[in-house]
Write a structure and sequence with these properties.
The protein is an alpha/beta fold and 508 residues long. The protein contains 20 helices and 18 strands. Strand 3, helix 4 and strand 4 form a beta-alpha-beta unit. Bound molecules: ligand NAX and potassium ion. This is Bifunctional NAD(P)H-hydrate repair enzyme.
Length: 508
Amino acid sequence: MEWRRFHTLLTPDEMGQADRITIRRGVSGFVLMKAAGNRVAEAALKMIGDIGTGGTCRIACLGGPGNNGGDAFVAAELLRRSGHSVVVHTLSKPECLSGDAALAAGYYEGTVEPLDTFEPEKTDLVIDGLLGAGLSRPIEGDVAALIARTNTAAPRLLAIDLPSGVSGKSGAILGDAFQAERTVSFFRAKPGHFLEPGRTRCGSVDIRQIGIEANVLDTIRPKAFLNQPELWRLQLNLPAGAGHKYDRGHAVVFSGPALKTGAARLAANAALRAGAGLVTLLSPPNAILVNASHLTAVMLRKCEGSGDLGEILVDHRFNAFVLGPGFGTGERVRDYARLVLEAGRALVLDADGISAFSDVRNILFDNEKQPSEGEGVRLVLTPHAGEFARLFPDIAEADRLSKLDRARQAAERANAVIVLKGRDTVIASPDGRAVINANGTPWLATAGTGDVLSGIIAAQLAQGMPAFEAAAAGVWMHGRAAELFGPGLTAEELAGQLPRVFVELMEA
Ligand SMILES: NC(=O)C1=CN([C@@H]2O[C@H](COP(=O)(O)OP(=O)(O)OC[C@H]3O[C@@H](n4cnc5c(N)ncnc54)[C@H](O)[C@@H]3O)[C@@H](O)[C@H]2O)[C@@H](O)CC1
Ligand SMILES: [K+]
């Protein structure tokens, strides 16, 4: 399927597979390494151009024991030939290298010195080829000290594949890691380029091609992607010319009690802006007046308990629900969630809606499993890290798991789409597919933005989008809206940016 080629993320193991398939097809490993070294040298020359001296630059290349070091030797030779002053500082003696890395060391004709002579203060550019995809344990001792000293000196630093110390699989820092200004990686990005804290350590990431053909992905069959519109744009229901508001679904948001209604209204207004044909806010009686005084296009209806909700659910036009924002965590959440799911409707469970199941997790998981057989997933859970840990404590505590794997395991257990929020939000489906979201701004970390996200996702569900795509699209639109607004964002302004987001999606 074509979508598999878009924005694929490969773990270091999968990247190794891509490498091996390519070599089996007759391209030698050293040819790939020379291409990689070339891409690194090109990036370095661009950075040197930014420095703007126009003359010779002092470049220190740090070379490790594996092929990451091999790439550094190739880049060093090309930069040396460009007239720059290059020294390769190696962790182990070049004669100890083997395979392609040894060939690369032989290709280099310049100065080699041990790592301990490297002085970050006396370079214009550092190229980090110490460790890449082969990082297998925490960095310790002299190398850790060198990384700390380098980060303090803060030279301009270009990382090859990954900043040494960043796990390509998880984005975790093993021991310590360089802070790069730029990272050049090859063929496809890795989860560690987009999962924190690795993402921050990478600086800006350039993915460059080195001669590995895209069709190796047909064999590898990766299931992780960067969240980009190409993954879900075709399922996005932009209103058609002859369309009717009922074609675009009817989203329903449960309001909290009188003093806690704002969160639900944020979700409801966002659902309307995000494309639901109609939106109804279900309000407890004591909050009807306050809700009525704040709503115009969103409709309002009293819902006092399970009986009222049961009557509402008889009408099949109410097709996507949001439960949790400002709602409180009592028995009522659990009843409502059960009724909505048993009635076969889509449900976004957020905030209090998630916390309400902390002590009775299995009820939620069992409820969701039975009715959904063969019907596709209808439950979307949108926890931040704290809510996630309450619902999936064992998964949250498993240090060896990446955020991607945590979200995947939770999705499988709950038979729900999991939106594990943060700067690096991960969206995972029970079938193993997962995306990492990378847009948005730090201004999103403000009260109420999560409520808006729930509403945006519900709007896509109301329009019939499958749950995984609805969640991925909702998270992306939410992040893009924040980018378009810029600094000073509050949750109230987010939905107002959605028209510009739709224009971009329609024009692209
Ligand atoms: N498709 C590919 O896979 C390609 C890979 N290339 C390069 O090859 C790299 C991967 O090469 P390798 O698999 O040789 O791995 P690395 O070069 O990243 O490192 C592996 C070596 O580091 C040692 N090591 C691991 N963790 C350590 C630690 N904490 N402290 C000290 N030593 C440690 C290992 O024992 C092993 O000797 C990539 O990052 C990339 O730069 C490129 O040459 C081009 C193609
Ligand atoms: K590196």
